[in-house]
Model the fold of this input.
Amino acid sequence: MRLSRYFLPLLKETPASAEIASHRYMLRAGMIKQHSAGIYSWLPLGFKVMKKIEQIVREEQNRAGAVEMLMPTIQGADLWQESGRYDDYGKEMLRITDRAGRELLYGPTNEEMLTDVFRTFVRSYKELPQLLYHIQWKFRDEVRPRFGVMRGREFLMKDAYSFDIDMDAAVVSYNKMFIAYLNTFARMGLKAIPMQADTGPIGGDLSHEFLILADTGESEVFCHADLVDMPAPGLDVDFANGDPNDLQSLVDERTALYARTDEMHEPSVFESEVPRSKRLSARGIEVGHIFCFGDKYSKAMGAKVMGPDGKEHFAQMGSYGVGVSRLVGGIIEASHDDAGIIWPKSVTPFGVGIINLRVGDDVCDKTCEDIYNQLCAAGVDPLYDDKKDRGGVKFSRMDLIGLPYQIVVGPRGLKDGIVEIKDRKTGERQNQSPEAAIAFITAQYADMSL
Ligand code: ATP
Ligand code: MG
Done:
């Protein structure tokens, strides 16, 4: 992409309303525009990052055996009356009446809708397990939308739902999602810690929230410090044919140590289980939440299947959410400096920025065009700053938008046949020939697995 043809409306001033770094940088870097409280337009740069995050979420859901579908944003009130949540959900639910006077709502989540799909089509245990997901906008009329996309009213969520014949099988589905979540967040460069969670209005027995540590997080968390650096299970977990006990051990290893949010925190247990030097109390951002709630919805809505015993059983269910749009802010909270954002390679909107310090100079222009064309061909997706601004403007702009690498092309270096590569995170600079720079950048994106 050539910057001269891109839509990147940067802000010079830091908006006063933005209290945290991610919100400030998303506004300043032209990623989002607020429409009204908690409702945003995603401008091209922000949209590109969100799509990359969404794709990682999708790949890890698919790897774990979940199947993608799409449900509507607008739901009928009738299903929610059946489950009993129409009244329970209260003011967070945006209620709408259509021209025929029918009560509708903008979905805050989809347990009811998918339970309805399930009860319509699935009759036998032979069709289980089912693990289905979609990535769709949600609306929750939050009391206090804030921190930009972190607590929006309209936000993008991946929500998956599992249906099993009994609780043992439901736990296997739960474990698959637990493992998939850790891999998902690790691929985004995040250290997410699973924490024992309150099951809240969704109800049920087994629940974990996944939190990334950040001073600006809304949740207070307490955990054993060793959890912070525990590696993700890895992409070679055999979800399809592996022994369920192996999945269970991976989960057990990661739930053995104390980790709870304030809602579930018990100081006496924390102090007795965790040695003083390992007690970590911090703040965190919830990026995912998984529940196993058994037959709560299947019973209320009559979602039954025939079991191997010839009797009808209510499906045992779980639901699994990831805050896709919140993650855009969460990743920035975890990775930025005073100059701007520092994107992890896996979600960066462009692989590298090419800065032409003298647009209009034949040699500079030609070198940049060559680098640009070759990197495009290599699939690195460069952003070429071909605008006629001063060097200082170009440097700070490129730092702000946070691409992992920059290639700086100027007349002085080119006299000696060199360009400069800058690593955005470390600030390290190296001088290379244009060919070597192209090879270096291409190599950085050659292996993007965990
Ligand atoms: P929170 O405790 O932050 O209000 P929740 O428990 O209501 O979240 P879930 O119903 O578990 O959220 O939703 C799944 C995921 O969706 C959350 O883990 C979070 O990442 C994301 N999410 C929830 N509410 C919002 C919101 N208002 N804005 C952006 N993302 C959200
Ligand atoms: Mg939650």
In short: The longest strand covers residues 279-294.
